[in-house]
Amino acid sequence: MTERKGMIQVFLGEGHVETSAAIGTAIRAAGYGLKVHIVFFGSASAEDITRSGTLNRLPGVVVDLVDSSDKFSLLDSDSTFLNAGGENFDVVVFDQVLSRGEQRISGERILELLKVDHGKTEIILTGNYANEKVIGVADLVTGCECEKC
User: Fold this and answer.
1) 0.70 cut: is pTM over it?
2) 1, 56, 62, 63: which has the highest count of C-beta atoms within 10 A?
3) Residue 53's pLDDT is what?
4) How far apart are CA 29 and CA 34, in angstroms?
5) Angle, nearest 10°, between helix axes 44-52 and 17-31?
6) Position 149 pLDDT exceeds 80
7) What was the pLDDT predicted at 86?
8) Where is coiled-coil annotated (predicted)?
């Protein structure tokens, strides 16, 4: 039997529909006993979610908020991309890291990180725009659309 490889998923959309999809995936993974790391790249709703502590109360879930003034030290090295505090994760969500407007991390750096051997770790990136190279390395790209907002 072949060992499962972690997929790279991209959820794209306007508003927070892609965030909802990623959080739903993360909660489902936690429900199955997997370790989940969610990194919110600064937005008001991310602050609200983090402050409320709802996600942090779920067993196996770690939440970090990286605001736009931060130097994104979490992503400075390949090892911190998949590790936090020495703990390996099964699912890592980088919410709103992909953006058409303010670029939170360069597209080149995102590609470098995605090419790191992440073993069985599932990587989920969300935002409103992904360039063709990011789409090319992703295993799954989902366009999320709000039908009535």
Assistant:
1) yes
2) 63
3) 78
4) 5
5) 30
6) no
7) 42
8) none
Which residues share a beta bridge with 96? none
What 8-state DSSP symbol labels residue 99? -
Q: Please, are residues 65 and 120 in contact by the beta-carbon 8 Å criterion?
A: no
**Mean pLDDT, rounded, of the chain:** 79
Distance CA 30, CA 33 (A): 5
Do the Cβ atoms of 41 and 128 come closer than 8 Å? no
Length of the chain: 149
pLDDT at residue 54 greater than cutoff 70: yes
- What are the domain boundaries of the chain? 8-144
Nearest Cα neighbor of 46 from 55, 59, 33, 57 is 55
Q: Which helix (H) or strand (E) holds 49?
A: helix 44-52
- 93 within 8 A of 39, measured Cβ to Cβ: yes
| The pair of three-digit structure tokens given for residue 43, joined into one six-digit string | 């937005």
